[in-house]
Amino acid sequence: MNTAGSSEARAEDAVASVRRSPLRHPATAPSAVLAAGAASAVYLYRTDPHDPGHLLPQCPFRMLTGLLCPACGGTRMVYDLMHGHVTEAWLDNRALLLAAPYALILLGRWAWEGLRGRRWRPTLSPRAQVVVLAVAVAWTVVRNIV
What we know:
With 146 residues, the chain is mostly helical. Helices cover 69% and strands 0% of the residues. The chain has 7 helices and no strands. The longest helix has 22 residues, at 94-115. The protein starts with a helix and ends with a helix.
């Protein structure tokens, strides 16, 4: 009896079963993110982040420094958008409001590719990464000075 051949066959069977696992399907991660986002949206719709005493997370950067981070106001912005208050959403975080459609497009593409059985990972060139970081730092400085 050839034990090396049988152990190789068992290893191949184990790899094949992992590949067939529903948790490894390319649509699993985007589906989980969409489900968590939907559950969070339901909670946020009924919880006003403008009022104190809710279970929404606080910004750790603001708690440590007292300054607004680039994303501060994002929760309030989403709440205001869900209730049709576009002007208030604009005042909560202008940069994040402008970036939100792009983020939704990326999420939609990730889900679409996953449903088609393909893995999709967007990449940014090093130059684009520097631009995103520079915009985030500039926005942080501007919103804390004004």
